[in-house]
């Protein structure tokens, strides 16, 4: 729609024409009183203006309401005044009168500077593509210094605004942010078109293009329609109906609602049996129609779907062979019964699978909760450990192996600082302190209070089998031993490159970020804990509570299997103790309550 000549005060726009603006653009107009503002007032002045004043003649007083005018004389010719009595009309007076008579109308023609033109038909855009809304001036003036406002229903909230030579986005509609482009390359010739990027369904509707130059403005209205072609028709056999086969045709993702037709091989339209349509959450249409095909009719049918706005059409064809049509057979009822039984079995099986899945999910969630609780406990213990490090000093211990407790097959170094497992048993006195079945050895040091640490070099052989930790001095030395807290042993176990904490009833597998070469054993009577650290990266490996060994004398404990050698170290400097501000987080997660397959492998004792 195109708007023509200026109109007066249409809210919320500014006044169309003011005399001051007209006087600026038309300087030849005289200086009229300030009360003359609009074209309607100007026309009223033109019609009631008394030109007698311009000629200097006295004005005839107006006739009072209800008074009668005197009748003119009935006889005799009307006397014509002598030339001496006629007023003198100079050329200047006549020109002024003529100028006043036509001045205001000429002013309006001179000041109507341009018209705004758009499109006389709707603009069609494809969803997801760009579209240009045309708008230009007539005549094609340079609009660089004009204001160009594209808006929809509200003048103040715009689609795009250009003025003072720049784009403005402060009050832009949110749905158009970063999706509009004012085409400035044509602004010098009056082309004020707007490009909308990545068109959406919500962009459909009317748009106003308003051009303002000073107090003068014009506008035009355009209509944008959007469309999109969705999927091709999907044909499917639904069921048997009235002795024939019901065939369905379904298509999704179309806008606006498309036309769907069934046709035979000759292109003749066929009536539909059922039809339905719906819109998804994004506004796109899903259309479905079905038709019943009889055995005696033509088997070739096609379903076509058409977008009327884009003039695009998609179709699909199906041919139904004779064996598919229903037959009057006694096996039909049995077939349906079998099919129903199969469906029922499938439903029961699906419910069973869903139930198992729900149980498995619940078990996983339970284990995740346990892992989180263990992590929280470890962080709590780490925080308490940092606090105790600031209160009670840690004493470095140079552990020496006690040869009187070593299993006869273990070989100790001369200084008692390393141990490995030999191939045969040595001749050793069978004193009460010596282990005779398990390949174990104790350290000479005994602890009852305080805070201590020692370090053990475990080497880099992943195939070695060993265990280390602490044990109560009164533990059993003869016969079978269960290396667990309830039997007085708190230790880590290594086999085949994997680590376990010897917890009860199941061992706890450790997942490490780095394989340790040196392990620090930290014994804290004050905090009632035994902790194991990876010296290489200062990671906390595991923490045991010391409560089960409470009141006992505690000694370092070692167990050596095949291909393993343990070396006791004396650190040259005090250990690095994390400060209160530095977080101490575990480097591994703990998998509790492992199944039998997750239990640590049994360490061979003899005969290897």
Automatic annotation (TrEMBL):
Pfam family, one: C2-set_3
Keyword vocabulary terms for this entry: Disulfide bond, Glycoprotein, Immunoglobulin domain, Membrane, Signal, Transmembrane, Transmembrane helix
Region (Disordered): 1-41
SUPFAM superfamilies per UniProt: Concanavalin A-like lectins/glucanases, Immunoglobulin
Transmembrane region(s): 331-354
Record-given protein name: Butyrophilin subfamily 1 member A1-like
Mode of membrane association: Single-pass type I membrane protein
Subcellular location: Membrane
Organism of origin: Grus japonensis (Japanese crane)
Ig-like domain ranges (all copies): 87-229, 233-319
Family to which this protein belongs: Belongs to the immunoglobulin superfamily. BTN/MOG family.
Stored SMART domains: IG, IGv, PRY, SPRY
One GO location term (cellular component): membrane
B30.2/SPRY domain span: 379-575
């Amino acid at each position: 729609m195109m708007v023509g000549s200026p109109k007066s005060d249409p809210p919320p726009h500014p006044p169309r024409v003011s005399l001051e603006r007209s006087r600026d653009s038309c300087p030849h107009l005289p200086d009229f009183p300030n009360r003359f503002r609009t074209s309607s007032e100007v026309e009223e002045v033109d019609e009631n203006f008394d030109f007698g004043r311009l000629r200097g003649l006295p004005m005839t007083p107006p006739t009072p309401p209800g008074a009668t005018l005197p009748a003119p004389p009935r006889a005799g010719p009307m006397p014509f005044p002598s030339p001496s009595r006629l007023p003198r009309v100079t050329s200047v007076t006549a020109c002024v009168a003529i100028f006043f008579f036509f001045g205001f109308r000429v002013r309006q023609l001179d000041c109507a500077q341009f018209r705004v033109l758009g499109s006389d038909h709707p603009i069609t855009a494809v969803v997801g593509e760009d579209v240009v809304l045309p708008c230009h001036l007539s005549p094609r003036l340079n609009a660089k210094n004009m204001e160009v406002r594209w808006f929809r229903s509200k003048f103040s909230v715009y689609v795009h605004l250009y003025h003072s030579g720049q784009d403005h986005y402060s009050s832009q509609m949110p749905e158009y942010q970063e999706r509009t482009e004012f085409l400035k390359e044509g602004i010098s010739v009056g082309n004020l078109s707007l490009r909308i990027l990545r068109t959406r369904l919500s962009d459909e509707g009317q748009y106003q293009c308003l051009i303002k130059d000073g107090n003068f403005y014009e506008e035009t209205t355009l209509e944008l329609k959007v469309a999109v072609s969705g999927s091709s028709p999907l044909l499917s056999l639904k069921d048997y109906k009235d002795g024939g086969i019901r065939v369905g045709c379904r298509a999704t993702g179309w806008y606006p609602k498309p036309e769907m037709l069934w046709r035979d091989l000759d292109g003749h339209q066929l009536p539909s049996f059922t039809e339905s349509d719906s819109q998804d959450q994004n506004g796109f249409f899903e259309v479905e129609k079905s038709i019943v095909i009889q055995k005696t009719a033509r088997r070739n049918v096609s379903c076509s779907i058409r977008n009327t706005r884009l003039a695009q059409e998609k179709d699909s064809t199906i041919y139904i062979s004779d064996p598919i049509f229903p037959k009057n057979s006694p096996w039909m009822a049995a077939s349906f019964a079998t099919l129903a039984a199969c469906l029922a079995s499938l439903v029961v099986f699906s419910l069973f699978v869903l139930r198992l899945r729900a149980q498995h999910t619940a078990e996983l969630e339970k284990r995740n909760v346990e892992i989180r609780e263990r992590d929280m406990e470890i962080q709590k213990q780490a925080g308490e450990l940092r606090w105790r490090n600031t209160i009670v000093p840690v004493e470095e211990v140079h552990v020496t192996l006690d040869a009187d407790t070593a299993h006869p097959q273990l070989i100790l170094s001369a200084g008692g600082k390393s141990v490995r497992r030999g191939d045969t048993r040595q001749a050793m006195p069978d004193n009460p302190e010596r282990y005779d079945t398990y390949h174990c050895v104790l350290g000479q040091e005994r602890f009852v209070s305080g805070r201590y640490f020692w370090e053990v070099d475990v080497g880099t052989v992943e195939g070695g089998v060993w265990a280390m930790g602490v044990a109560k001095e009164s533990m059993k030395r003869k016969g079978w031993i269960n290396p667990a807290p309830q039997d007085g042993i708190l230790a880590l176990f290594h086999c085949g490159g994997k680590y376990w904490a010897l917890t009860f009833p199941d061992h706890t597998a450790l997942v490490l970020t780095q394989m340790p070469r040196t392990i620090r054993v930290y014994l804290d009577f004050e905090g009632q804990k035994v902790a194991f650290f990876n010296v290489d990266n200062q990671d906390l490996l595991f923490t045991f509570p010391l409560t089960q060994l409470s009141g006992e004398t505690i000694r370092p404990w070692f167990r050596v299997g095949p291909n393993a050698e343990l070396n006791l170290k004396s650190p040259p400097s005090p250990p690095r103790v994390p400060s209160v501000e530095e977080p101490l987080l575990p480097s591994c997660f703990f998998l509790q309550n492992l199944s039998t397959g997750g239990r640590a492998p049994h360490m061979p004792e003899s005969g290897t």
